[in-house]
Amino acid sequence: MYDIVIIGAGIVGAMTARELSKYLLSVCILDKESDVAMGATKANSAIIHAGYDPKEGTLKARLNVLGSEMMPQIAEELGVRYINNGSLVIGFNDEDAEKIKTLYRRGIANGVKKLALLDKDELLNLESNISKNAVCALYAPTSGITCPYELAIAAIGNAMDNGVDLKLNFKVEEIKKNEDGYEVISSFESVKAKYIINAAGLFADDIAKMAGDTSFSIHPRKGEYLLLDKECGSLVSHTIFGTPTEKGKGILITPTVDGNLLLGPTSVDITDKTDTSTTFDGIETILSQVNKYVNSIPFNRVITSFSGLRAVGGTGDFIIKFSNDNFISVAGIESPGLSAAPAIARYVAGMLKETGIRLEKKKKFNPYRKSMHFFKNLSDEEKNRLIRENRKYARIVCRCEMVSEGEIIDAIRSNPKATNLDAVKRRTRSGMGRCQGGFCSPYILDILSEELKIPVEHITKSGGASNIIIGRTKGGEQW
Amino acid sequence: MVKSTDLVIIGGGPAGMSAAISAYNNGIRDILILERAETLGGILQQCIHNGFGIHKFNEELTGPEYSWRYEKQILELKIPYKLNTMVTEFTRDKIITAVNEQDGIFKIKAKAVILATGCRERPRGALNIPGTRPSGIFTAGTAQKYINIKGYMPGKSVVILGSGDIGLIMARRMTLEGAEVKAVCEIMPYPGGRARNVEQCLNDFNIPLKLSHTVVEIHGKHRLTGVTIAKVDENKKPVPGTEEYISCDTLLLSVGLIPENELAKSAGIELDSVTGGAVVDQNRQTSVKGIFACGNALHVHDLVDYVSEEAEIAGKSAADYIKNNGMSPGSFARNIIIKTGGGIRYTVPRKITSITDAKIYFRTSGIYRNAKISIKEGERVVASIKKKRVVPAEMEMIKLTGDNIREIKGGIVTFELEGLHD
Fold this sequence. Notes:
The complex is a heterodimer of chains A (479) and B (422).
Chain A: E1 2-7, H1 11-20, E2 27-30, E3 47-48, H2 59-78, E4 82-83, E5 87-91, H3 94-110, E6 116-119, H4 120-126, E7 136-140, E8 144-146, H5 148-161, E9 165-167, E10 174-178, E11 181-185, E12 190-198, H6 204-210, E13 219-228, E14 239-242, E15 252-255, E16 261-264, E17 268-269, H7 280-293, E18 302-312, E19 319-324, E20 327-331, H8 337-354, H9 380-389, E21 396-398, E22 403-404, H10 405-413, H11 421-428, H12 441-452, E23 471-472
Parallel strand pairs in A: 1-2, 1-12, 2-9, 5-14, 12-20
Antiparallel strand pairs in A: 3-8, 4-8, 5-7, 6-7, 10-11, 11-12, 13-16, 13-17, 13-18, 14-15, 15-16, 19-20, 21-22
Helix pairs in contact in A: 1-5, 1-8, 2-8, 10-11, 10-12
Chain B: E1 2-10, H1 14-25, E2 31-34, E3 50-52, E4 61-62, H2 63-76, E5 81-82, E6 86-90, E7 95-100, E8 104-115, E9 119-121, E10 137-139, H3 140-150, E11 152-153, E12 157-161, H4 165-176, E13 180-186, H5 195-202, E14 209-211, E15 213-219, E16 226-231, E17 244-247, E18 250-253, E19 257-259, H6 262-266, E20 291-293, H7 304-323, E21 333-340, E22 344-348, E23 351-354, E24 358-364, E25 368-377, E26 380-390, E27 396-400, H8 402-407, E28 412-421
Parallel strand pairs in B: 1-2, 1-8, 2-5, 8-20, 10-18, 12-13, 12-18, 13-14, 21-28
Antiparallel strand pairs in B: 3-4, 6-7, 7-8, 9-19, 15-16, 16-17, 21-23, 22-24, 24-27, 25-26, 25-28
Helix pairs in contact in B: 1-2, 1-7, 3-4, 4-5
């Protein structure tokens, strides 16, 4: 029997698990996927918003501002990249200028620091590639960028290092309430817990229903993105937004922490919670929009496109509430969910405390986790010292991103362990470069097979039936 | 500690090996080849089909056999090489940082460097094909590696997008391994690969080649379940109503090769926006003196025979450069720019800097019959060749002699093509 079971290993579940790992509690995270961070956390804009967007007085506003203030330290502790690059909302006419002033006032009311209104010259001084048609901007120097799945992986890894359990491929089918707590049941196994935290993202409504709460529903809103080569990342240094419309913050242009340029997202309400396909229209929409904001975007340098699904709750605010006794639902965590996640975790811990649970700090809690990219950041001398101990750090497997076999094995062996090609990719960046895995995937397939001691035929791209190869041409398992 | 070496060759594929042997034969002994793979030979090792060496050796060799002709010489001449060695940094003052398991991270200062880094395949992302992101999508070269090197079978029912040579070769290879290749789609109205490969790899196996077709959607959540293809108009836009669903578990992409020039860029070498390779003179010297480039890193070749031939030029030039203590080879300096006229996509080299024989490779931008390609200075024809048919998939060459170059008085010559556009 666990004290707490968290359903969902996205950024909210990850941050909550880490927050709770500070206390003398037994905690287990469940996720239906083959890896953590597989839902909205995997595919979003990666922005740590300053907090001028959400309406005054909402949970969104409060937790966004607090979360984004907490983020630099958390990123530092978890060895996750975070760059405080600042953001710009640019306007092209009087109507935009009015909206930008509203955002400014809202930001001040929300407690966002250092906000400034810029005129055209100030804007162009700050960001020379902005369209000459822009006339004004809101400048938020506290805005930042990070890598969201890296953050979730690191938070869960750190939580696991501090004693939290993780069960992947655990699809919750049923939740039974009994005298001493809950039983969470999948087709293969069940776990018991006194408390449940429902952080199931798009499926949070389904999980809440299992506990008798039908008060909210979640629907998916698709956002498509284009990612450009690292050579393009310096086109802008800030995150550039257009003036928001009723449909949301609109399409943005931002450098990523890896130095790529990211364009998107679109915003289309759909019905299928698993439909992360990209569309012809989506790609066209992005291409037609971003040109208006920034000059000479090299569209021929797109290396990949992807789409993510926002978990929209329909209330306009985050839904964080008790769905039943000792059962907390954290739902509708759409943007700025990533920015707010650390604050959401603390908020949820506060709710738990109100129920009378004892939150006694662990003496041995270690807040630090070695960066997944620690090797890259070493000096040549330090690298050579490590290479003498483990020659595999000198064998480069991914040539575009310069990832060594040593780093890939680390990703397979450290918490939370990578068990497929995409999981290795999210931890090491192998296969994320300009050749998109053409060179390295055959090698990583073999490394995974050897480390996990399973035949290559069973190694997948991203769990399920996503096998890479179907058999051997000669010897071995014939297809 | 920085070690000094006369000549460092980055890349031990056909270009790197040929350049090394040529530099050796021109008197250089202090040579080091750095190769990132586990063997010399580069991509040839996975090209187990034949057809290599027809021009160079008058024989039809397989890729590994062709490679071995050069590996053997490297061994006999005792030219040093390091395998599994990745160059991580390269500066314009020719300091190379590399890493391997034996030496760890090490630096070398070279008098001259030859970039023979080859090319990579254009991935799916670059094409913006809408749809899901299942497994089962491979570049043709990666599939070739799985089958020919690893002995793994990527899939059993296959659609191939792009009719580049590797795609055509893989259509046959997958068929021979028992897979069903349902179609090869080519967005252009003509095949991307050589005519011989279309005949031997598709027609001989009754594999349909759908010209002016592309893949417009990818289906399947985990593993690929199918693709939607459609006809395209003359602007390469899909024609509504022509969509056709093909169920398959594998999509191979053969949609272009991109010269690998990350190291060239880090050294500030000027690149050609058409070829993606360095801008070079007829000695294959780049915009940075003492740094040379050859093979598919310079421009994507159709036949390895020409890679070897071009690398010999780079090897000799680097040797001359080292022997002349950094003075440019060829004492009769010239500064002639080669421009391209209609019908010509690119030329390599783009500059003539000395009165020495110059092999100028070029590709046309379309299919032409009864073509006459001339190098002109104003209205005067410096040199010309005639071809019954020229196609973009096949490289052509014009040789300029020292005498031809001496006759050029100005600073510009133009490549021009006359012929019947197909």
